[in-house]
Amino acid sequence: MPELPEVETVRHQLQDKLAGQVIESIEVYSAKQTGDDEEYESKLIGQEFADIDRIGKLLIFSFADNPDLFLLGHLRMTGQLLFTSSNSLITGGGHSLSEVDLDLPSKHTRLQFNFVSGDVLYFNDMRKFGYLKIASASEVMVAKSKFGPEPTGANFDCEAFYQLIQSSHRPIKTLLLDQSKIAGLGNIYVDESLFRAKVSPLRPACDVSRRQSDLLCKATGEVMRESIAVGGTTFQNFTDTGGQHGNFRDYLQVFGKQGDKCSRCGDVIKKTKLGGRGTHFCPGCQN
DNA sequence: ACTCTTGTTAAAAC
DNA sequence: GGTTTTAACAAGAG
Asked: Residue A162: how many CB atoms within 10 A of its CB?
């Protein structure tokens, strides 16, 4: 499932491909992903993509010469943005190589943007939870205002972080997943960050010591920056000529490692449920 | 054919 | 109001 590092990877890789592309036509295979916007096509055809911004896991596409038109994109669990040039896949996002459909459009293609250049952008989403919706400038402002600070940001303040976690009795993992408090962490990186900081996901946030809080504050940013550096975990970048396959999966310490021995203390990694989500941790060295 | 799982969010309940 | 719980989303795996 795409989290901040995966979405950032998509943003970064799509940025140069999309900038300057003029939409010639759009295929809406599933209206739900447009927010059931009946004027979706008429509003977008002829528009030229400009920059791609991101906050948390939300992508914000802007257009040239149209300051009040944006597309808000969320991949949710199974969304993929796939870009083809001359019918060969250049970049995608959201899932492992084997899960990416090579023949496009596929049965999971929900939206298709055909560009004047001949290039094509596909929005694939098996479970239809994601979206690519039109928004005005003020709607973008509102959407942005709902996010807390990003741990990868330079201004991420460990003092403010400590104040935040001290103020909550919720389990620390649940708090860290709250996008309105901290933006960008998902199930994988929250488990990995907690492992790195040696904090149990089940521990009430207010019981986390200042020392552990500082470790955790640093760990969240580190884990996501390291993942971005190798192209994310669930993201696969590849080309038909065999490009690089960045993959943070090789570096995971606890996520999906239940039954394995902890690399730090040798205890057995456990998987449990917290707030309905699979939660991985080492009972030996996280407390 | 049925249940379970998945991450996120919005709504409802406390 | 903060917070916890629940439901819903859609499809696939078993």
From this structure: 18
